[in-house]
Amino acid sequence: MATPSHHQNAIPSTKKKKTHKNPEANFLYELNSCSKSKDLKGAISLYDSALSSNTRLNQSHFNTLLYLCSTFATDPDSKDLALRYGFRVFDHMMALNIHPNEASITSIARLSAAKGDGDYAFEMVKKLGDYLVSPRLRTYEPALFCFCQKLEAEKAYEVEEDIDKMGLSLEEPQIAALLKLSADTGRGERVYNYLHKLRRSVRWVSEETCKVLEDWFCCKASEIGSDVGSVKEAILRNGGGWHGLGWIGEGKWVVKKGNVKPNGRCCCCGEQLDCVDIDDVETEKFALSVAGLALEREVKANFREFQDWLEKNADYEAIVDGANIGLYQQNFAEGGFSVLQLNAVIKEMYTRSGNKWPLVILHNKRVRALLENPSHRKLVEEWMANGVLYTTPHGSNDDWYWLYATVKLRCLLVTNDEMRDHIFELLGSSFFLKWKERHQVRYTFLKGALKLQMPPAYSIVIQESEKGSWHVPIVCESDEESLTSWLCITKPGGCEDEGKTGSTMETCEIVDGPCCKSSENRNNEKCDDKTTSMTGKRKERSP
Q: DSSP states of 93-108 as a string?
């Protein structure tokens, strides 16, 4: 009996061509292809064919069509077609009782705004609540931008109020649009408020937003002033960089573009910019958060004892993360805890703060080991005698102690810890990065020599001074701070160039360093690189 060969039994292998089982799936597949290739006419042709063949349509079909139509609603060549079919598709969707979702409403809002009907766009957004769907910021944008472009201020402000009620936050494009609207309709107080919204939302502004600010300040004079004492108090309370009390001074603005020296002094007006801290309310909230989490995770009696001790010993201007410094670069065979490194940091911080000792947080197990070492005992005893050491108890996490002390005393923190682990994630603070920038001192040891990286002399954020001037950083592709351009907005009396009057707009150049050139004096001002020593105490900040 013959044995069948392998080839006789083999089943021919054929690749199955990808097909869709039903007309609805095929229609969606082809629609998505048109969406990817931005083929509006192809999608409309598919839609007409689907209607002719009575294809059953669902939300995904309608959303894809609406998205394509809204994409072409601002294209001059396709606008009429996009608007005609866009509203036809939406009406068809509603006639079939298919509930729109956020994407559907965003698309129809864009179509409405494209034909100048901001009212309908906003009405559609408000109807999302009927379907238990929450809008996103993009859902509000069409109505907001439409009202802003048509200078319908009250309607635009109503949209903004609705955005706030939904717990959404405006971003630069929306704030800039509202700022321009307020400027164009002469609402000075609104302009002031939106400037502060920008300050809270972005570190620097785009060129487009910068142009809006230039146009406002170059044609507008401020009319009011505030008490100098209250302004200084407000700036101190707010952490520096702003007071929020309204326009200050009278007369026209002097508007320039320039740079800021490494020491934080504006090259255009000579004013010193602040290294901006979190404000009093944020600081208190931050300290309570740290203490609350520490009490949950530490032995309560131990941490409360530390809190009580800190209340009685609140004069420190710097906290030192002892373990972080002592173990720095010690991952080699003979490596251990470096008392020399820690002592170098202690002495340097003592000198920088005008002969005031820092507070070193160190675990008691580590301190006990150092005291048992004859070569280290005398130095450690000196630290203890000078009130330098606070030893944390067995089973504790040093991080809670040095973080709480730094926040509570509003002072500097010497550590290379980037504070990215789970402890700091638990805090979930939106102002944590600002706080770190203002308070953290990093360090290196190069061939045994200590080098400290102090907090920056100034913050690259929108700033409002006690004189009423404004400094606005403009977005820059370079990471070098010296290359960042700033919009300098001052009054003639507050500028180094006292002879200038009226409102001017000047473009500044950089020659041998960041500088600002006035129209009357074209001498380049070279910038020095001297920075003043800083203390973390807010009350000690340089004016």
A: HHHTTPPP-HHHHHHH
Composition of the chain by helix, strand, coil, percent to 5:
50, 10, 40
Instruction: List Cβ neighbours of 159 (8 Å cut-off, separation of 6 or more).
Output: 122, 140, 143, 144, 147
Could you report the per-residue pLDDT of 355-408, keeping only the tens digit for each? Answer: 999 999 999 999 999 999 999 999 999 999 999 999 999 889 999 999 999 999
For residue 150, the model assigns a pLDDT of 97
Place of tokens 């061939």: 447
Distance of CA 262 to the CA centre of its chain: 22
Structure tokens that stand for 422 in this block = 């789970």
Question: What fold, for 182-275+456-493?
Answer: 1.25.40
Residue 221 — pLDDT band, cuts 50, 70, 90?
low
Three-state DSSP class for residue 257: strand
Residue that has been written with the tokens 């209340």 in this structure:
311
Strand partners, 255: 489, 505
Give the pLDDT confidence score for residue 251 in this predicted structure. 83
Report pLDDT for 314. 94
Rg (CA), the chain: 32
Place of tokens 């559907």: 104
- Asked if residues 329 and 445 have their Cβ atoms less than 8 Å apart, the reply is yes
| Domain 280-451 = CATH 3.40.50.11980 | yes
Q: In whole angstroms, what is the distance from residue 380 CA to residue 367 CA?
A: 8
H-run or E-run covering 109: helix 102-114
161 by DSSP, 3-state: which? helix
Query: The whole model's pTM is what?
Result: 0.79
Choose the weakest-confidence range: 8-22, 186-200, 236-250, 283-297: 8-22
- Torsion over CA of 267, 268, 271 and 272, rounded to 10 degrees? -30
DSSP output for 328-386:
TT--STT----HHHHHHHHHHHHHHTTS---EEEEEHHHHHHHHHSHHHHHHHHHHHHT
Share of the chain above pLDDT 90, in %: 71
H or E, element range at 404: helix 398-409
Nearest partner of 336 among 369, 368, 301, judged by Cα:
369
Q: Is 190 helix (H, G, I), strand (E, B) or coil?
A: helix
Q: What does the domain layout of the chain look like in residue ranges?
A: 182-275+456-493, 280-451
For residues 338-362, one letter each, b for 16 or more C-beta atoms within 10 angstroms of the residue's C-beta and e for the rest, the string is bbebbbbbbebbbebbeeebbbbbb
The three-class DSSP label of residue 484 is coil
